[in-house]
Amino acid sequence: MSEAVADIEIRPINGRFGAEIIGLDLSHDLPEAEFRRIEQAWFDASFLVFRDLVMTPGQHIAFTRRFGPLHIMTPLHYNHPDHPEVMVLTNLEDGGKPLGIRRAGMGWHSDGEDKRLPNAGSFLYAHVVPPEGGDTLFADMYAAYETLPDTMKQRISGKRARFSRVDMHHVHYPHEPALTDQQKRERPDVYHPLVRTHPRSARRSLYIGRWARDVEGMDPGEGRALIEQLFAHASGEQFVYRHQWRRHDAVLWDNRCMLHSATPFDEARFTRLMHRTTLEGDVPV
Ligand code: SIN
């Protein structure tokens, strides 16, 4: 059932997770009560799809900031030249110079999982979308955890995975320069629990991603096999929503209870230009 909040309509996407927000107009002040309804919908649904949202980078930043402090992505040269809070994801170039990061986010992950403080949420906005391809997949890690067999829940309880940018950068970003020694020092391996509890909902979710290499205290091969087994379960179609972008869609997702993955498109024929703001997070527990 959809719910009207002043001019804003909030409606479930598929009855499992996700909600659509229709009618948000950021050219007017959004009253606190309406913002709180949107925020609650985000916690309830894990991701929100805003349709036909026309916003400038400044409005994008200001709206995201209402959900919490912003994280500035590095390397800085992929951020908007006038707004470092906005990361630019695009295959566009100007005279051979990339205007943003290409092929970002391929493979299941949550933003910042390879950092000590992973990002709480991300808000991706479509400026230009290809006519085919370039969808984003989202997977519900609450449901993935809840549907694990009890034996698996016991096996992973209290265990931590090692997430390694240093080991995996060349795998996920083969088209990007190798990490410098300085970047390696800035992005050391981190350990996060395989099961984390959301600070707002208090629900447990499975916490894995493309930077997770192995499991603390386990033989590396055994840990890797365990992570792969968990991925095979978590990416089951019953947990996945595919977002086919329309221009001026914006999706706000919760990295603490979801995985997402970009998908390819024909970069030689089409353009994709997306802006992303990113929320600071906290240590997963
Ligand atoms: C991301 O991982 O933030 C990018 C997702 C996308 O561009 O589809």
How would you describe this protein?
With 285 residues, this protein is of the alpha+beta class. The strands form five sheets. It has an eight-stranded mixed sheet, covered by helices on one side. It has a three-stranded antiparallel sheet with strand order 15-9-17. It has a three-stranded antiparallel sheet with strand order 11-10-14. The protein starts with a strand and ends in a 7-residue tail after the last strand. The chain contains seven helices and 18 strands. β2 and β3 form a beta hairpin. The protein is globular. Succinic acid is lined by residues 89, 104-105, 111, 122, 124, 136, 260, 262, 274, 276.
Q: Short description, anyone?
A:
With 285 residues, the chain is an alpha+beta fold. 23% of the residues lie in helices and 27% in strands. The longest helix is centred in the last third of the chain and has 15 residues, at 220-234.
- Determine the structural class based on helices, strands and strand pairing: alpha+beta
Binned, the helix content reads 10-25%
What is the first-to-last residue Cα distance?
Answer: 34 Å
Question: What is the count of DSSP helices, taking H or I runs of 4+ residues?
Answer: 7
How many extended strands?
18
Trace the largest sheet across and list its strands. Answer: 1-2-3-4-16-8-18-5
User: How would you characterize the largest beta sheet?
Assistant: 8 strands, mixed
Which ligands accompany this protein? succinic acid
- Which outline best applies? globular
Name the average pLDDT. 95
The proportion of residues in beta strands is 25-35%
Radius of gyration: 19 Å
Low-confidence stretches: none
Order of helices and strands: EEEHEHEEEEEHHEHHEEEEHEEEE
